[in-house]
Amino acid sequence: MEGSRLNMGHHEPIRRSTHAPSPPVSEIPDKLYFRIGEVARLCEVPAYVLRFWESEFPQLKPNKGGTGQRLYRRRDVEMALRVKTLLYDEGYTIPGARAVLKSEFRQKEPQLALPGADLPASDARQLRGLRRELQSIAAMLARPIEKIPGAPKSPTQPVHSIRAARRAPTPPTHLHTPEIPFDSD
């Protein structure tokens, strides 16, 4: 027994706990959010332990409401129960439990397939056509307005000169008489 302990890696459990096992995940009430007190009762640990675990396990990050109160989602509660199981029931150290959770998280991440690798030929052709259309729309949107056929012409005067003209004082009206067109009958 002692010889097997010497060969044990630093991520292996160092002791077995006599604590009662964590409640099963199915016993978590069906709610959207849980307060820290509720999660502490479900995990059978004090609230300060949960706050400590948040600092040690990046996977355990509850949201904080507008008042700064922690709001745990169901997956956060499940993660807290998993942390408790690793630490108390399986006897892992904090670094060891962190490594186990990291490897479990890596295994759960879906492996993304290469786009189009398993598509039928007709779907792949349709996607290529759609991509060409989107690229032409993007190119059209990137061009200046004057170069788009049929688009209204924008003012050629720079914006800063238009703003300067608005700020200029208006000339007195008595110096300028408007031209009035006359009908010639």
Kindly provide the radius of gyration, computed on alpha-carbon positions and rounded to a whole number of angstroms: 34 Å
- Write down the CATH topology of the domain at 28-108: Multidrug-efflux Transporter Regulator, Chain: A, Domain 2
Fraction of residues in helices?
A: 40-55%
Please count the beta strands (DSSP E, at least 2 residues each): 3
Order of helices and strands: HEHHEEHHHH
Instruction: Tell me the number of helical segments per DSSP (H or I, 4 or more residues long).
Output: 7
- Main sheet: strand order: 1-3-2
Structural class: mainly alpha
Give the overall shape, derived from the CA principal axes: elongated
For the record, the CATH class of the domain at 28-108 is Mainly Alpha
Mean pLDDT: 75
What is the end-to-end distance?
A: 123 Å
Strand content bin: under 5%
CATH architecture grouping of the domain at 28-108: Orthogonal Bundle
Largest β-sheet summary: 3 strands, antiparallel
Question: Helix and strand layout, with pairings?
Answer:
Blueprint: H1 2-6, E1 34-35, H2 36-43, H3 47-56, E2 63-64, E3 70-72, H4 74-89, H5 94-108, H6 121-142, H7 159-167
Question: What would your notes on this structure say?
Answer:
With 185 residues, this protein is mainly α. The protein has a domain at 28-108: Multidrug-efflux Transporter Regulator, Chain: A, Domain 2, CATH 1.10.1660.10. Helix content is 46%, strand content 4%. It has seven helices and three strands, in the order αβααββαααα. The protein has helices at 2-6, 36-43, 47-56, 74-89, 94-108, 121-142, 159-167; strands at residues 34-35, 63-64, 70-72. A three-stranded antiparallel sheet has the order 1-3-2. β2 and β3 (70-72) form a beta hairpin. The longest helix has 22 residues, at 121-142. It is elongated.
